[in-house]
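Running low. Invent one:
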Amino acid sequence: MKASFKDKLRYRFEKYLNKGGSSIFVSLFVVFIVLFLLMIFIRWMLLVIWPDLTYTDSFLDDIWMTWLQMTDPGNMNQDNISPTWLKITTVMSGVLGVIILSMLIAFITTALEKVFYNFRKGRGKVIEEDFTLILGWNERVVDIIRELILANESEKYGAVVILSNEDKEEMDDLITKRIPDSLTTRIITTTGDYANINELKRVNIDQAKSVILLASCTESASQEEKVYSDVQSVKSIMAMISCQGGENELPIITEIFNEDKIELIGYFDDENIIALNSWEIMGKLLVQTSLTSGLEMVYNEILSFDGCEIYFYEANWNGISFGKLPFHFKDGVPLGVYNEQDGMVLRPGKEYVMKPEDRIIIMAEDDSTINFESAQVFSPTGMKLVNSKLEQGQRSVLIIGWHDVAEIFISESADYVKEGSSFNIYFREPTKELIKRVEELKEEYPDFEINLTDTNPFDLESLEATNPFDHDNIVILSQEFGEQSADKIDSDTLIILLLLRKIKSKMGETKTKIITQVLNSDNQEIITQTDVDDFIISNKLITMILAQLSEEPLIMKFYEDIFSEDGSEIYVKSVGLYLDQFPVKTTFGDLIGLADQRDEICLGIRKGDQSKNADANFGVTLNLGKDAAVTIEEGDFLVVLSEDEL
């Protein structure tokens, strides 16, 4: 059936109104003008038919009175002396004016409310330039912002923009509460779908310097939620590439849970897009920490913008060997070399001759303090090396609780610990899934002894009956399955640590190392009161890595090497492996030369008598001046980059 002219007209009018607020405003204004002209015409017709009704000096006065009456009905009293017929037009003008102006006022009020609502909800356009864009929201956000604030501290202005599905007011309240002083960094939050191209354009993504794409759930979430998070991340990456015309020029750092999605992101074949499996890194850190005490504090120093940092530096090397390189820098310890052809090589060997195209990987206080001196700034005295080696033995590890990271911990341990080592898992009322998974691990790693025991770790008698300090290491993980808040997991951990301290007080000194995760970095100070030997501040360490990668994606190659068993790793080794007489008064430069005799690179020292002192960074000091005087006691340690812990 063919539409009538009336239907077509109504359809077109509706389409016009659907264009938005401006079309509605224009329509109301046009209606007002039409009615105004109509009332003028009626008044003019009356005056033409009955000229005797005229009481004004000219018809322009009648037009003016009609305008006043329609815009303000109070002006109808100006026609008190007019004839009755003209008063009819006065009443009509006043009534029509009230109706139309009320509609206009209502529309303007609604439009303003929408503007203020969008302002409160963060729906405005972002016009920042050279900023770090954070997409998504999870428990890592605050620590990431803290790191970026430190990174921007030397700049006059810095900016961090957060685009998330969270409510803007809630984001602002949390950030203000947890970060009262943002120094030189502006923090802008806005609400929107970060996988939507229009939303990405609204936050001016083409002017961002880097992007951090966060997971939409925590590590303790269900597998379905993790898959959804990964799919959203892949979709967001594709949207960001589309916003750049199909060619990505932004460093994009994203959290991914599943290996198949990491492989999918690899299909982009873009070195600027880095997919990070945070819990794989945490599993490797747990293994390395179980082998060497104090490692968490070392990583905390290296990964944070507040301490020593890793930089890529190039200079005219003049054919110098890598072994002599440390003594040509007043600030900084070279760790390796990098070039486009050979890639990254840590500890290339003292005889390695630097190539013109080489860039060095150097740990230094700041990039502004790195300067290669043509003349040697320090000459080591050539301390005598004892060169003792540790004997790798079987280890007994107690895992209290369970998490996916425990599987990574066990699998990574296969590369580090001796056959016959044992992993005893204590979990309250283990599920069928956990029992099945432990049986699978037994089959996967037949050289290890893996046991699962139903034990309540919150009960002192039950925990004490398991003889926890008969183990070399105690690793404390989440005590429940399902998604939990960071504070809930940390609270459970704190209770278990207090119970362990109670048990330990009855036994005296033990060699057992207690290692735990701290998800909320604000709980660090509380955890340190429980005499824990090492703690992995999970969120904080991962946020440090995310923040550093956003500033320099090339650092990922460094992380891949030090977190891999095949490459060089950081260890905290007893000075007894290097010296046999104590105390020894020396310099940091001489310690670099001493470690070099074992084909190791000395990064710093750890004072044994300060290992429980949080104010002294638990005894860890990195990148001292080459001529800095140090006294080495028997219980001290050297922080070194080495092939193994032996």
